[in-house]
Amino acid sequence: MDGEDGYSTDESKRKADDRGDVIFKQSKKTHRSPHKTAEENKLDQLIDMVKEIKTDQIFIKEEIQQLRNEQKLFNEIVNQLKEENKELKEQNQKIRREYQEIKTEWEEMKNTIEIIDREKRKNNIIKR
């Protein structure tokens, strides 16, 4: 079948593509009628394209809502983790303070033991 430019329809489409012309692909929903003009067929194609776009918009809106829900859940998880992190930091500080207290006590005990040992040695030397 020849196109309007004298080439076969496929070749006509290829040449139109090469020129950058817009080609309306026939939708699966549209059935060309031999009684309709080319403009009417293109109008039907445009109507089908608008329907597809509207369907895509609905899908996109649903996807956006899903992403918002996921973002909300993600934010809740982040906030929960921040709270847990805060609690862990507080526990860590408490443990560090306890460790420091124990270390200080140990140092004091060590010093006391060293003093006692020196005194014992002094006493042993004096006894001899």
Q: What's the short story on this structure?
A:
The chain is built from two helices and no strands.
Structure description:
The structure is a single chain. The protein has 128 residues and is mostly helical. It folds into 2 domains: 1-28, no CATH class; 31-127. It has helices at 9-19, 38-127. The radius of gyration is 43 Å and the shape is rod-shaped. Residues 1-40 are annotated as: Disordered. Residues 10-22 have a biased composition (Basic and acidic residues). Residues 26-35 have a biased composition (Basic residues).
Strands, helices and their partners?
Elements: H1 9-19, H2 38-127
Region (Disordered): 1-40
Biased composition (Basic residues): 26-35
Biased composition (Basic and acidic residues): 10-22
